[in-house]
Design a protein that fits this description.
Keywords: Membrane, Transmembrane, Transmembrane helix. It holds the Pfam family DUF3098. The protein is mainly α and about 80 residues long. Helices cover about 55% and strands about 0% of the residues. It is built from 2 helices and no strands. The longest helix is centred in the C-terminal third of the chain and has 23 residues. It is elongated.
């Protein structure tokens, strides 16, 4: 059987999957209830929503770029 050649190695896929999980966690941290029609909810300006969640999300996007650009070591080239 012929070996399938992928653009990325196993390590790249693991890094990208971990980064996507970080992005999802960042968006979950940003979510929450907003203010109602006649009520104001000060929790929309919570540190978790406006500081921590964007930092986690940006780290996730940077990790995706790193996972894409990292040169894979487990990729073998065979000349057939």
């Amino acid at each position: 059987m012929a070996k399938k050649d992928f653009a990325f190695g196993k390590e790249n896929f693991i890094l990208i999957a971990g980064a996507v999980v970080l992005i999802i966690i960042g968006f979950i941290l940003m979510s929450g209830g907003g203010s109602g029609d006649n009520t104001f909810n000060p929790a929309i300006f919570d540190t978790r929503r406006i500081v921590i969640a964007p930092i986690v999300t940006v780290i996730g996007f940077i990790a995706v770029v790193y996972g894409i650009l990292k040169k894979s070591n487990d990729k073998t080239t065979s000349e057939e």
